[in-house]
Amino acid sequence: MKDKNQIKIEKILRLPSWIKFPISKASEFEKIQTLIKKSNIHTICEEGRCPNRAECYAAGTATFLLGGSICSRACAFCQVNKGKPTPLNNFESIQVAEAVKILNLKYVVLTSVARDDLPDHGANLFISTINEIRKFDPKIQIEVLTPDLWGGGKSFEDKDKLQKERLRTILEKKPTCFNHNLETVERLQKEVRRGASYKNSLSLLEKAKSIAPDIQTKSGIMLGLGETLKEIETTILDLKKVNCDQITIGQYLRPSLKHLSVKKYWEPSEFEYLTNFSKKLGFKKVSCGPLVRSSYHAG
């Protein structure tokens, strides 16, 4: 029997008063959820249990999750299911496009689970969906939020080359914005983003700006995982060094007891400081606050 002093008791922080979830009409919430289920498509709003999904649904918007609902990686912060990905839905791009049409969206965000099992690591999921959306309305603005597209080669040089080729095929479709999240500071990457790399992600953003200088680049980080203010500032500076145009900074909220615990709830005044810090560096758009998420108010 373990000594009581050997049993580690986790301290769970109480949700602070300044984190208030938006309230929305139940009818609007149900309307979008019903459409998603009937269309056999997925959204990161549902799979990731986003705290803003009621607000976004009420506005008739959603961020579509491509490649199924099972991710080939196991990030310790994410609510999306992990494991062996399911076979691709060959009609997914058409179904997403039809949902976009029904919702009458003018700005669409496309993201995906990581599909390291596919030769192109899921790049064609974005390409085919963009093509289908633009068939009925070429004027719709489309933001893509991609995984790191890394891997598949035998050497670093091979992986680097493949990442650039996959990225180029997506950027050739001229999305309004290319988004890829660092998620956290460099020290915490292995713990938080299993299978991902801080340097590879920065490299992807740098390649995107090099390939398509006119396309806005964007990245986001979460706070509350044990990072320091100095580390956050360094991360913001690193994003600026690769000419990232937009940045989102939000509070990490633990999806379940199986996920990483919240080490700190950052205060509104601290978010305000980071907003001013980022703006002074020259980012074109800064979204910073407790409930800010990568695609929140993206349009």
From TrEMBL:
<feature type="binding site">
    <location>
        <position position="50"/>
    </location>
    <ligand>
        <name>[4Fe-4S] cluster 1</name>
    </ligand>
</feature>
<dbReference type="GO" id="GO:0051539">
    <property type="term" value="F:4 iron, 4 sulfur cluster binding"/>
</dbReference>
<dbReference type="Pfam" id="PF04055">
    <property type="entry name" value="Radical_SAM"/>
</dbReference>
<dbReference type="InterPro" id="IPR013785">
    <property type="entry name" value="Aldolase_TIM"/>
</dbReference>
<protein>
    <recommendedName>
        <fullName>Lipoyl synthase</fullName>
        <ecNumber>2.8.1.8</ecNumber>
    </recommendedName>
</protein>
<dbReference type="GO" id="GO:0009249">
    <property type="term" value="P:protein lipoylation"/>
</dbReference>
<comment type="similarity">
    <text>Belongs to the radical SAM superfamily. Lipoyl synthase family.</text>
</comment>
<dbReference type="InterPro" id="IPR006638">
    <property type="entry name" value="Elp3/MiaA/NifB-like_rSAM"/>
</dbReference>
<feature type="binding site">
    <location>
        <position position="75"/>
    </location>
    <ligand>
        <name>[4Fe-4S] cluster 2</name>
    </ligand>
</feature>
<feature type="binding site">
    <location>
        <position position="78"/>
    </location>
    <ligand>
        <name>[4Fe-4S] cluster 2</name>
    </ligand>
</feature>
<dbReference type="InterPro" id="IPR007197">
    <property type="entry name" value="rSAM"/>
</dbReference>
<dbReference type="Pfam" id="PF16881">
    <property type="entry name" value="LIAS_N"/>
</dbReference>
<feature type="binding site">
    <location>
        <position position="295"/>
    </location>
    <ligand>
        <name>[4Fe-4S] cluster 1</name>
    </ligand>
</feature>
<keyword id="KW-0408">Iron</keyword>
<feature type="domain" description="Radical SAM core">
    <location>
        <begin position="57"/>
        <end position="284"/>
    </location>
</feature>
<comment type="pathway">
    <text>Protein modification; protein lipoylation via endogenous pathway; protein N(6)-(lipoyl)lysine from octanoyl-[acyl-carrier-protein]: step 2/2.</text>
</comment>
<dbReference type="InterPro" id="IPR003698">
    <property type="entry name" value="Lipoyl_synth"/>
</dbReference>
<keyword id="KW-0949">S-adenosyl-L-methionine</keyword>
<feature type="binding site">
    <location>
        <position position="45"/>
    </location>
    <ligand>
        <name>[4Fe-4S] cluster 1</name>
    </ligand>
</feature>
<dbReference type="InterPro" id="IPR058240">
    <property type="entry name" value="rSAM_sf"/>
</dbReference>
<keyword id="KW-0004">4Fe-4S</keyword>
<dbReference type="GO" id="GO:0005737">
    <property type="term" value="C:cytoplasm"/>
</dbReference>
<keyword id="KW-0808">Transferase</keyword>
<keyword id="KW-0963">Cytoplasm</keyword>
<keyword id="KW-0479">Metal-binding</keyword>
<dbReference type="InterPro" id="IPR031691">
    <property type="entry name" value="LIAS_N"/>
</dbReference>
<dbReference type="GO" id="GO:0016992">
    <property type="term" value="F:lipoate synthase activity"/>
</dbReference>
<keyword id="KW-0411">Iron-sulfur</keyword>
<feature type="binding site">
    <location>
        <position position="56"/>
    </location>
    <ligand>
        <name>[4Fe-4S] cluster 1</name>
    </ligand>
</feature>
<feature type="binding site">
    <location>
        <position position="71"/>
    </location>
    <ligand>
        <name>[4Fe-4S] cluster 2</name>
    </ligand>
</feature>
<dbReference type="GO" id="GO:0046872">
    <property type="term" value="F:metal ion binding"/>
</dbReference>
